[in-house]
Amino acid sequence: MYSFLTNPGILFAQYLGSSMLLEYFAVFVLGTMIGVPVTFLVVSHYRRVRKQDAESIAKDILERAELDADTKRREAEIEMKEEAIRLKNTAEKEFRQVRQELYERGRSLDKRQDAVEKQADDLRKQEKLVESSQRRLTEKIEERNRRVEELKKLIDMERVKLHEISGLSRDQARDRLLRALEKELQDETGALVLRYDKMAQERCEQIAREKVLLSIHRYAAAHTAESTTSTVDIPNDDMKGRVIGREGRNIRAFEKATGVDVIIDDTPGVVIVSAFDAIRREVARIALTRLIADGRIHPSRIEEIVRETNQELQSFIQKTGIEACNEVDIHGMNDRVINYLGRLHYRTSYSQNVLRHSVEVAFLSGMIAAELGLNQQLARRCGLLHDIGKAVDHEMEGGHPKIGADLLKRYGEPPEVWQAALGHHEDPKIENPYTVIVSAADACSASRPGARRETLEHYIKRMEDLEAIAREFDGVEQSYAVQAGREMRVLVSSTQTTDESAARICRNIVKALSERLQFPGEIKVTVIRETRTTEVAK
Asked: pTM value?
């Protein structure tokens, strides 16, 4: 207090300092009061601007999302419409196919119904014709019997007159007739020799022709397409291009791997595989079918599939040979021979499967041997292996009997077996009875109805023609065609014929068969005249 009163300078300085501080403080307070609202306004404006930008961005995003969603919805609708159209077209196509099939089936049924009705009408007409023919035949038989009785009376009367005029007894007349018949037969001897000479020449020409045809069959060309080609179905014609490949590399690789010819032409839905070797053709067919089903067709895949198919087919061939051996109860056979036997499954002879033919010959040989008291097991073995040479006859020189005999001898088969294979066709030297048995069984299997190219209808028609021609002659009661048409047995009446007339009937039947029918080989005609006398002891 004292200082303040006594020192006015210090007091003034303190007063000035306090005033500046107050001014600074007032300025600070004023700036704070002005800056806070301004800052608040700036921050609020900044936030509002950011909010507007965010809302604008969100609005753009929503608009784009809505546009994308609308676009995707439209695309989905278009795809659904296209799928619906495609399904509709597919359904319409299938419906048209089914409708066409039903239409074709209906037409086929209508045709069959018309054919059945026509056949029924024909049968009714034939029944009426048969009835009328039977009536006429009965009348003719009665008329014939009446005339026969009259003829017998006339013959008896003429015989009596002839005896009276000629002065010859019955024995003398028979001797004179026999001398005339002997002279006639002597005249016919020369013609018979010439006829048989001509038949021998024709037979030689036929054998030569068969040899040539057999060679052609073993090395078949394109004209034997029914026995040297196989067909493979393809889903569409585009697959043909894939089978051929770029610049033909696929088809060349396939032909090289299988050894066959692949024929691709304009035939829709079919690829043709051609080869004379049935096994190679079967390998090619199966391999091509698998390649088409797999869809991956290129040279490496082709070689792989062909290799696998070949192995599977070889296993099947071995299995088939074993099954054939088990079927005829033959065991202890070399595996190589079994393989050759299985290969016969793919070999045909005049359309007859050689393996089934061999099995049939085996059973027939066993039955014949059992009837003769011989070894049935050995006979079946001979019959089963008699055509084994046909499995490799296109690979070796010579006929299949010699090839088969050499193979069987090489693999240790008994002499009876390979001798039967060697001589089951034509061999002048028969060393054991099994060769004859196999030859007979082979002929039975090959000549039975339906075994080879001759149909059952043609076979029955030929048998009926043979018997009908024989029954046309007077005195013939019954006629039978036996041995597949190679022999005729004719039964004549003992009352209406004599021994001499039976010989004349036999000669006339042979002449009629030669003139009116065409048949392979020869037909032996045997006329049987039998007299039976029966008495009853009481």
From this structure: 0.44
